[in-house]
Amino acid sequence: MRRGINQHTLEKICRREPVRVIKLAKCLKVLKEYESEKDSSIKARPG
Known about the structure:
Radius of gyration: 14 Å
Number of strands: 0
Distance between the termini: 27 Å
Strand content: under 5%
Low-confidence stretches: none
Helix content: 55-70%
Shape: elongated
Structural class: mainly alpha
Number of helices: 2
C-alpha cells in the first residue's frame, strides 16, 4: 500500500522522532482515508 508516504517518515513517526508538521498531517490524512475505505468495504459485504 503506497499512498505517497515515505517509509522513512513512517519509521520516524513510529519512533516518536520529530517530523515536519506537513508530513505528519499528510500521513494522518492518508490513514483516515484508508480507514474509511476499509470501513466502507466491510459494510458493503453481505453477511
